[in-house]
């Protein structure tokens, strides 16, 4: 299991589903966790669960569609814990399930503001902070500058970011055009930022899950009778993903053992895109 002792992990949308599972997994691996969430009750519940397990966590109310709130959430993270090592841009919405021609400008704008704007402005604030830390961190004992990743024990000095895309970010999704477009955009942002900050050892990757048990998927299941079975049949493994399975891949992407991996969009789909 990866060891993130005393590292600071900032996670958006960590009040539910994949975000909460990721927050708990980082905490049990030693990280201090910032739960950035628009839903205060659910965000505080995640913090409560972490504390009951003996971990350290902070709730920050944050609407990721508002760049000022993301800036403020990163500032609160640094004010509380002194730095930012890991950021997981997970908050997202499914939007309206409906035909391409029936999606309204409001449907489109809302999903873009949260699913794309949240990741874009989130990464801007996170990368700025990670770069700032490289200027102020001391050099490694062998003289290697912080952030180069060449010195044992300092391989994570640059920073790590994982963005949550979707299998709808690599394939079309009938009845979900704005969602699919937003998740394709997340991969574009991930790859571009990864290229721009590779030399600073800020590793930036994405995960692309297929249907995974969460409030979002329950909403989709409830749109029509028989929907759950139809969704399940699309997945070669014959089942949905579990939030903790997605969380474990996110941790693996952030681990020092995985230090050469950046700019990737990892598909977690029970085999769907293999065919
Ligand atoms: N569950 C799936 O099948 C699945 C598949 C692929 C991708 N994803 C993606 O995984 C991520 C997590 O989804 P989930 O399935 O855990 O859903 P979820 O609904 O359980 O969790 C989403 C969380 O994001 C929060 N959130 C929503 N809008 C926000 C905003 N503006 N600011 C801050 N927080 C906000 C919600 O309050 C909620 O806690 C999303 O980006 C989603 O698109 C989910």
From TrEMBL:
One Pfam short name? adh_short_C2
Q: Where is this region: Disordered?
A: 135-154
Question: Tell me, what is one Gene Ontology molecular-function annotation carried by this entry?
Answer: oxidoreductase activity
SUPFAM superfamilies for the chain: NAD(P)-binding Rossmann-fold domains
* UniProt key word Oxidoreductase: yes
**Transmembrane annotation, as ranges:** none
- Keywords assigned: Oxidoreductase
Query: What protein family is recorded?
Result: Belongs to the short-chain dehydrogenases/reductases (SDR) family.
Q: Which PANTHER family is this protein grouped with?
A: BLR0893 PROTEIN, DEHYDROGENASES, SHORT CHAIN
Identify this protein by name.
Short-chain dehydrogenase
